[in-house]
């Protein structure tokens, strides 16, 4: 089975089925295993250096079982091809991302701000209880742009580059970063390794995603926004992705937001317009067009190889 066919089947499964229910998703079992490791290794009374070493060992303990199982599978082509399709399907979440964004847009369209706040809270880490309607629109568009890179294009990149093991390694490390990568009292040192490893794995896919966003919309504005605003944002990888995406759509995103009870003065970035309700669908459309572009590039590369 060719690489192109494997990728198309996995993307098609995601489009038709979406993500499995949490209890059936392999990441649910992984999350329980990570919880055991955290309880075993995290000692807030230890020195910062010891907490960092504990985080490194916990990271290795988290990802090693899954990678070992993959490497131990027999070299049967049909089995490997079918498993590759299933693994990539579990590693990407294009339809889930669109569904979450559409659910928020539907609540806003119905005039139910409380429900929109609740739904956007499923996909952002900031507090949503006091968000205005415009805050909700900005938050969901930022999430669509950022998670397009994290949940769609980075797994695809690592699958193409390193096969199922590459996609699994990326997805598990990205999940660890989402669980441990906070700069708070609990995870500042313990989560350091997960956060830095995730930054390293995301560096190139994030910039390819930003270039793709720019190529498929307002290219000049997207590149200018990337150069001007990405250095102002906290994440070395989300910065280019979100600023280029916001510029491509000519939307002004960012601004103050509440995290863990504290108001954070985030930078404004992107274009000139405040986002409107229809811009949520525009952001989803940009991610979808980018997916088609990547599929075409994978097919071309597979043909030429």
From TrEMBL:
Name the principal localization, coarsely classed.
membrane
Question: Which GO CC annotations does the UniProt entry carry?
Answer: plasma membrane
Q: Which residues form a coiled coil?
A: none
How does the protein's chain sit in the membrane according to the entry?
Multi-pass membrane protein
Indicate yes or no for the key word Plastid.
no
Q: What are the UniProt keywords, alphabetically?
A: Cell membrane, Cobalamin biosynthesis, Membrane, Transmembrane, Transmembrane helix
Q: Where in the cell is it found?
A: Cell membrane
- Matches recorded under InterPro entries: Cobalamin_biosynth_CobD/CbiB
Q: Which Pfam families match?
A: CobD_Cbib (PF03186)
Name the domain of life: Bacteria
Q: In which pathway does it act?
A: Cofactor biosynthesis; adenosylcobalamin biosynthesis
What GO annotations for molecular function exist for this entry? Answer: ABC-type vitamin B12 transporter activity; threonine-phosphate decarboxylase activity
* Biological process, per Gene Ontology: cobalamin biosynthetic process
List the transmembrane segments.
53-73, 152-173
Keyword DNA-binding tagged: no
NCBIfam families this protein is in? cobal_cbiB
Q: Which PANTHER family match?
A: COBALAMIN BIOSYNTHESIS PROTEIN CBIB
Give the UniProt family note: Belongs to the CobD/CbiB family.
Q: What does this protein do?
A: Converts cobyric acid to cobinamide by the addition of aminopropanol on the F carboxylic group.
- Tell me what this protein is called: Cobalamin biosynthesis protein CobD
